[in-house]
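Q: I have 197 residues here and want to know how they pack in 3D. Can you give me a structure?
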Amino acid sequence: MEPIRVHSGLVYPMNRANVDTDQIIPKQFLKRIERQGFGQFLFYHWRFDEEGEKRDSFSMNDKKYTDASILVAGDNFGCGSSREHAPWAILDYGFRVVIAPSFADIFYNNCVKNGILPVQLSEDETQAIIKKAEQQKLELTIDLEKQLVVEEEEFNFSFDISDYHKQMLLNGWDEIAVTLTHEDKITAYEERQHLTG
C-alpha cells in the first residue's frame, strides 16, 4: 500500500448525504476478484445513462473535475453494505482522500485498510469546501502528520484520527503489515511453544 503523509490535489464536491456503497459501486460490477478496474464503475448509475453514455447533469462528468483526487461529500458517506469494493472503486478512480462530516464505520475502516485517508470535518467546514469547489477549481493540501486540511486563501481545518489508523496510513501498512511489525515477538512465542510442546 502506498503511504500517505501530505496529499495535495483537486477537489471534487459531492453535496449529497447518505451515499451508500451500492451507489458508490453497483452490485452488478462486483464479480471481479482483483482490486483493480473498479474505478470505471464508480457512481455508475449517476455518471452514465441506460446506454452507457455520460450524463451531462452529473457534475463528476464536468471536465473541470478531471484528475480530482480529493472527494468531499455529505454526512454518513459509505453507509449500507460492508463491501470493500467501494473503497477499491474510489481509489482506482484516483481519489486518495475522502472528506465528510461522518462516515459509516465499516466504510471508514475499509478506506484505511486500502490506503485512502478518510477525513472527518464538521458540517460547516465540509459545506464551506463544497461550496467553494462548486464555484471554482479548488486545490487542498491534507497533512496527515499535522492533521490539517489547508487551502492557502481560506481554509485551515484540523481533524482527528486514531493513532492506529494514522500509523497505518503514514507507513502504507495493511493489517498483515501491522502484524509483521511484531514478527520478533511472534517468532519468540512460536519458539517457546515448540520447546514446551
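Q: Anything worth noting?
A: Residues 6-172 form a domain with the Aconitase; domain 4 fold (CATH 3.20.19.10). The chain has a mean pLDDT of 92.
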